[in-house]
Amino acid sequence: MSARPRPHFYGGLMAGDQDRNDTGELWSAPSFLTRIMGFSFFASLFSNTYGLGSVKLLVLGSIIETGRRLCQWLFERLRFQYSITIQFGEGDPTYEWIILFLTEHNVWRRSRDFRVTAKNSSRKWGIETSPSSQPEGSADYVPTYELPQLFRWNGYWLEIKRSKGTPTYTQMGAQSLSTIFITIYTLDMTVVSKLVEKARLRYVEVSRPNVIIHTADTPHFGPTFTWNNVKCKIRRPLDSIILEEGVIDSIVGDAREFLDMENWYIDAGIPHRRGYLLYGPPGTGKSSTIHALAGELGMEIYSLSLAAGFVDDSFLQRAAASIPKRAIFLIEDIDCAFPSREEGEHPMPLLPGYPGMMGLGPRLPSRTRSTVTLSGLLNVIDGVGSEEGKLFFATTNYIDHLDPALLRPGRIDRKIQYKLATREQATALFLRFFPQSYITFEDSKVSSVDEKQSRLGELAKTFSQGVPEYEFSTAELQGYLLSCKKHPEQAAIGIGAWVEQERIERKERKEREIERKAKEQQSRDEVTQMQFANMGGLGMMSKRGGGQKVGGALRGPSMPKALPGASLVSLSTDSLSQPDMAFTDGFTSDSDSVSVSTLPTAA
Ligand SMILES: Nc1ncnc2c1ncn2[C@@H]1O[C@H](COP(=O)(O)OP(=O)(O)OP(=O)(O)O)[C@@H](O)[C@H]1O
């Protein structure tokens, strides 16, 4: 008798045992499994010790894994029930507060991963590399904050995690915005608000010597709006702004009064907002005034340029709505939201949408125009985004381009004109530029403080007399003074020659500008001719007087029925003798005036 292998127990049936089924057919356990379940592999496992060992391991592993998952689930449940998690999205002002707070609490001290960047005005929360409060050297060491961190604050355990957002691809490259998650092991919501408020107060305190300027440099379409660039500028003293007597004080006084009277606004049912428009030639101190004011009032600036291609009505709306209370909302060069006179005179000669125009001729250079509409802008100024103690500031070099609707009180409450420098301003600028302690006089007899003072006064007078009133901006005069730093005598004596030189250069620039405009005009006319020719007619268009009217002649068998994007309102019919008038169908807009005469169709 051959030794039978030791049978293995499986569901009451011995592997290797033979038995008969109901029909009397002979079958064995493995063949049963094979036939009934089709698991010959498992069946063979039970037929040897190695197989059984594997199964035991499998079962054990499963139990351990199930146990682990159960613990994790229980932990998550407990955590969910006995903790509060808050999120801070990059781009929201609170993100800045919390990052500073965590950095100051040394939360990232165990970080082993740093991004090193050269120090610049962009705000970065780098770790301190020296015991002093000032980070050493000319680089910032910013932890990449990848590992979750645990720390204790006010007797509570806090767990910090940071997740990197999915990258957004923009013209400026890929950008991913991260989110900080803080889990606080408490059920008391006041702990959360205390933490956030503490972080905010600390942020305000740390930022005090600086003016914080938030800008939106790239488009982002997340749940929180992205003021994705934060810059830090040293606060500028108010008296460094040289304007006509009393102007700066009146702006500061007005803004202070507005901020202090919140309750009055609420009681009177008037939206708590105030709008200022600073207008005047470039370099006269408009932006500098706003920065100095922000420093004086301890407010942050949220600055947006409407010229950025991605800024449209909805972006503007979200931008304004995400500005916190007691902040300055600044729109620089607000006129770029509207066509300039010059653009109005010369509508874009290429008419997009007309099939015959595709790829025709060069696109002419034009001023950057915003995609923001007037109604979109007015909505933002009127809407929630501009309430809650926000100061709205706009600057422009061309107040005439602005729609009267924008300038009405309630939207713009104060208009402040900036002018080119007066002699008084020139004197003040000179004295500010040459503080006694920094300068050396060529005349060695001038040594005492009083002598220096009176000599400086004389030089300032000479300087200002050499400056013609309302001809140069303060920025231009500052540029000149910078060329003779520390040498006031040289600056005072040389001003006459500089003024003459500037006048010559200006004249040359003007001539070049006229030449450039003439060339632009010429190429516009050429493109217009090409377009008309392309529409099947023999088109001849010529500008008359460089103004609104275009005079010319059109003839051809198939005059265009419509000219998408173009407009035709005044039609000279003097020489009309053919039924070619049909081509005027579809010219509906009256924004640009085109005068067209038709000639008899060529035989
Ligand atoms: N009134 C002023 N007082 C002091 N500094 C001035 C004044 N005007 C101009 N400056 C100096 O000139 C430079 C440019 O000034 P700023 O940017 O404020 O001019 P702006 O009127 O805003 O010009 P733009 O219209 O081109 O924006 C700054 O360095 C500023 O210090």
TrEMBL record:
<dbReference type="Pfam" id="PF00004">
    <property type="entry name" value="AAA"/>
</dbReference>
<keyword id="KW-0472">Membrane</keyword>
<feature type="domain" description="BCS1 N-terminal">
    <location>
        <begin position="58"/>
        <end position="241"/>
    </location>
</feature>
<dbReference type="InterPro" id="IPR003959">
    <property type="entry name" value="ATPase_AAA_core"/>
</dbReference>
<dbReference type="GO" id="GO:0005524">
    <property type="term" value="F:ATP binding"/>
</dbReference>
<feature type="region of interest" description="Disordered">
    <location>
        <begin position="541"/>
        <end position="566"/>
    </location>
</feature>
<keyword id="KW-0999">Mitochondrion inner membrane</keyword>
<keyword id="KW-0378">Hydrolase</keyword>
<dbReference type="InterPro" id="IPR050747">
    <property type="entry name" value="Mitochondrial_chaperone_BCS1"/>
</dbReference>
<dbReference type="GO" id="GO:0005743">
    <property type="term" value="C:mitochondrial inner membrane"/>
</dbReference>
<feature type="compositionally biased region" description="Low complexity">
    <location>
        <begin position="588"/>
        <end position="603"/>
    </location>
</feature>
<feature type="domain" description="AAA+ ATPase">
    <location>
        <begin position="272"/>
        <end position="422"/>
    </location>
</feature>
<dbReference type="GO" id="GO:0016887">
    <property type="term" value="F:ATP hydrolysis activity"/>
</dbReference>
<feature type="compositionally biased region" description="Gly residues">
    <location>
        <begin position="541"/>
        <end position="554"/>
    </location>
</feature>
<dbReference type="Pfam" id="PF08740">
    <property type="entry name" value="BCS1_N"/>
</dbReference>
<dbReference type="Pfam" id="PF25426">
    <property type="entry name" value="AAA_lid_BCS1"/>
</dbReference>
<dbReference type="InterPro" id="IPR014851">
    <property type="entry name" value="BCS1_N"/>
</dbReference>
<dbReference type="InterPro" id="IPR057495">
    <property type="entry name" value="AAA_lid_BCS1"/>
</dbReference>
<feature type="region of interest" description="Disordered">
    <location>
        <begin position="579"/>
        <end position="603"/>
    </location>
</feature>
<protein>
    <submittedName>
        <fullName>Predicted protein</fullName>
    </submittedName>
</protein>
<keyword id="KW-0812">Transmembrane</keyword>
<keyword id="KW-0496">Mitochondrion</keyword>
<dbReference type="InterPro" id="IPR027417">
    <property type="entry name" value="P-loop_NTPase"/>
</dbReference>
<keyword id="KW-0067">ATP-binding</keyword>
<dbReference type="InterPro" id="IPR003593">
    <property type="entry name" value="AAA+_ATPase"/>
</dbReference>
<feature type="region of interest" description="Disordered">
    <location>
        <begin position="507"/>
        <end position="526"/>
    </location>
</feature>
<comment type="similarity">
    <text>Belongs to the AAA ATPase family. BCS1 subfamily.</text>
</comment>
<keyword id="KW-1133">Transmembrane helix</keyword>
<keyword id="KW-0547">Nucleotide-binding</keyword>
